[in-house]
Amino acid sequence: MESHRPTLRELFEVASELPRDARTRYLDANCDAQLRGRIESMLASDPGSEGALPGMAATTFVDVLADSELTPMPLTGTHVGPFELLGVLGEGGSSTVFHAAREIDGVRQDVALKLLRRGLYSVEAKRQFRRERIALSRLQHPGIARLIEGGVTENGFAYIALELVRGTSITEYARTHRLDAQSRLRIFLDVCRAVAAAHRALIVHRDLKPSNVLVTADGEIKLLDFGIAKLLGEDDETHTRLPAFTPAYASPEQRTDGLITTATDAYALGILLGELMTGERLGEASGRTPSDCIGDEADAGVLPASPSATRRLLKGDLDNIVLKALQADPALRYASAGYMADDIERLLDGRPVSAHPPSRWYRTRKFIGRHKGGVVTTAAFLLAIVAALGIALWQANIARRQVRRADEQAARAVAVRDFLISLLDAAQAKIPVAEKPTVDMLVASARERVNADTALPPSIRADVMATLGMVSMTYGDIAASRELLEKSIAIKRDLYAEDDPERWSAIVQLANAIERLGRFDEAEHLLRPLLPYFRAHDSKIAIEGLEMLTAADVRIGKIDTALELAREAAAMGARIMRPDTREALTIAAFPGKTLSLAGSAPASIAALEPIIKRWREIGLSPDTSFCEMLNNVATNKVRLGDYRSGDSLLGETIEIERGISPLSPILATHLRNLARVRMTLGLYAEAEASLHEALDIDRGAFGTGSIGMLASLSANAFLQKLEGRIPAAEVYSREALPICATAEGVKSDMCARIKNTLATIRLQQNRLDEATSLAKEALEQRTHLFGERHPNVAEIQTTLADIALKRGKASEALQLSDQANAIFANGHLQRGREAVLANVAHANALIALHRPSEALNEMAPLIAQWQAVETRPTPLMFHLLATSALASAAIGDGASARARAQQALALGLPQDALQDDLRDVRRLATP
Amino acid sequence: MSELQVPCISNTDALFADVYDRLKMMAKRHLAAAARGAPMDATVVVHELYLRMSANRELAFAYPGQFFAYAARAMRHLLLDLAQSHGSLRAGGQWLQITLTARNESFVLESAERVIALDRALDRLAAVDERAARVIELRYFAGLTSEQAAEALTISKRTADRDWAFALAFLKTDLA
User: Fold this and answer.
1) Residues 38-97 (B) with a CB less than 8 A from some CB of A
2) Are the beta carbons of B112 and A65 separated by less than 8 Å?
3) Model confidence, pTM
4) pLDDT digit string (tens) for A532-556?
5) ipTM for the whole complex
6) Minimal Cβ distance to A61: which of B35, B79, B176
7) Chain A residues closer than 8 Å to B62 by CB
């Protein structure tokens, strides 16, 4: 056995315990001379002195070091990186600017070199500096002074070399050249265009002012110091923090440490424009219009014309443009320099400008005027973007443990929004006004531009992709959504650590898309590994992750873990949300919703009703999630056979939802649910009205031929079939089937529903082979989606039982309907419409098997029960009575058969829908 | 050598960055107070920081020990950053002239050198015995007592004391 070599510590500890000569022997045996010397001096050092580190206490060091201010003084003639310093050009709060030069291949390059006054020591600070520098070096525009190079010296001092521009400030240039108003506006337009180019790369200048806006001898504009303010302004609390902006041009959000966006530059541009035209700097608080502040005396060249002529020139549009740029609320300003440039251009062309102070609706009205058809889609698209970013902002919220980072995230969210909105405008400009832009077109166009825009930083690119992905998801284009989210995640993988919410939150969104494709097992694979991160980060996105995993588990049959996760999500919600708020009650309702998904109607109702009650008690106004609770309770009541409560709850849901968003697909869902109840109740006309409304909403939101249409198409086909209008039912099915043939369609439960409807039609037409294959496809699909013991599966089994019966295979029909009934009974759903139909199939099979008295025994309680539920005539009652009559006839009880048959006819139902039963009933009713 | 979890702190860790930033601000404020005659006390600073940070429920410290580990590391970095800014200024005087406003320039620079030397020695100690280096950080930079340091590292007080004794002997001879 090889002997163990003791570590330094073991040697030290063992030796310190030993008496002197034993110690010597021990050390002799175990170490060489050098190590021995070390151990001996360690042993000799005084062990007893508490807290006695060499030197002084840590805090004393801090005192000494932090107390001594350092003032670096630049020396010309020395080198920074490859550059030789030639002289000082200027000094700012946190940096000194040198005129510097270097030789490249014998050519001298002059630069303006900015030397940061503070050092960058930490890895993170250096990385941050590098990131910013790379972003800025991508910014190439003739109107912007280039960033040539940057780096950190050996001593930890950061520097940046910028294109050296020789020129005069824009205001000075206008004055000395005595420019007229048109020329001033043209120059200013160039400035806006240059800033807009930077805004497209999501770089904000932050310090626009005349001394940073130069005009060269050739009359070309050059903007200096783009984004430098940010590079320099990174906070550094050990030294006095100097604002990295110029107060006179700073926007309110800069002065109050608010969120910096492209609108911040719009503000500075507003001041600059005012100064260029009037010689005065206006602030947002001045309350004066530019034309108001023109005095009668001004130095020569300051004004573009005589004072009175200038006043006339400015009044109206130009005043409005400046005032709009100077709004205190960034949301009311030009969102970016591009919009301001457009207005200046319109002004120069004599077209009406967008700035129009009294009404925020002005633009909206114009917008609606231009895109009559498209405005609904567009508004919905914008809404979706805002909703998607709402999620992004949540994430910003949960990451507040890193304050600066949260700001960064919020700024990024705003940047992404502005970017997308600008894309939207650009996309619309390309689409003919007469044509209605669909969401798909908008997303596709936005995507193209994101891919083409190489200046976009990866973090923003990832966010834009994720946002577009979520927008696509809202509109049901799940395949596109998935692709976008996967791209976003691929980028984030390089930017963020595995446990960083930035990274896994995107995976949660992807799982959401995948679940919408019906690939629950895949979603589960994605989400399960993230579970520890969800649990470690009490946050809304973690809750969402838990919700998605719950949904996946329900669908793949892991009902128990699903319910546990749902409760975990609710518990997390209770921990992080203020009680009795919308969001708190919404997440509290999640277990109830999960129970509903799992098919446990009574438990779901029990879980949801107290929350609904609480919602009403504290007087929260109802919203979409409240509607969802009502809808859940309603559909579960219907499943349990309580049609009346279901009907009234759904009516309430729809009224609320109509008030919230009259064109939303969610409203369409509620309308379809109501239609189903009404169909069951035989109220076909009312059902049809609801379904048509739903169909219209879906066509508007999703577009013909999209997967979002399936639910409405299948519901309409079903209704038409119920009413016996087979050709109409076929029309809807034909529209749906091609969608069902697509990859997503195959996964949709709606397709199973349509196939089931078509199967019943084929059954009626006696095309039994087609009926069988359609029903089997539907069965397979639903079994895959819900597992074998779900009520939706039982529904198809009933259809198969009916088919078997028609083929004369009564025992197979009996077996199938038995299975269906068992599933319904298991979920306490015996009183629902589907269960009753399964019972009817069962009874018919019994009759065919010459066991009519058993059939009769089964029918009697169902008839009584159904009469208690619904006094109005329903087709279901017709079928119950008809089957009962057939059973009586088979026993030989002609009188009872006749009575039941006459009762059925007396319901007075439209006869088209009653199918084969009608023939039998008519036969039996006549003595 | 040990199965216990020594919190792994990377300088790019967001949580660490936050602790560091806050500590820096607090140190600055305490220094301002120190100028009025109250000496700065590491224990007070770190405990105040803990109270502030644990009041913020969005902070995800798994256990208090983790916080102290971060705070100690942050204090160490703060000191190093201060020292380096002095040291590098002196060493990089090729193109910058430095004016120290402190009363005793050589004392300041000597302190800076000592801090940097201590930091390097701690790195060497960590290479030999990671946990012993953590004990030094917790006690020397965060001002924890021997019991508190033991608790933060979830080791016994006896073990923490042995770590301390070894670490002290190591550093003294290393810096000698």
Assistant:
1) 39-42, 45, 56-60, 62, 75-86, 88-89, 91-92, 94-97
2) yes
3) 0.44
4) 999 998 888 899 899 999 988 887 7
5) 0.74
6) B79
7) 536
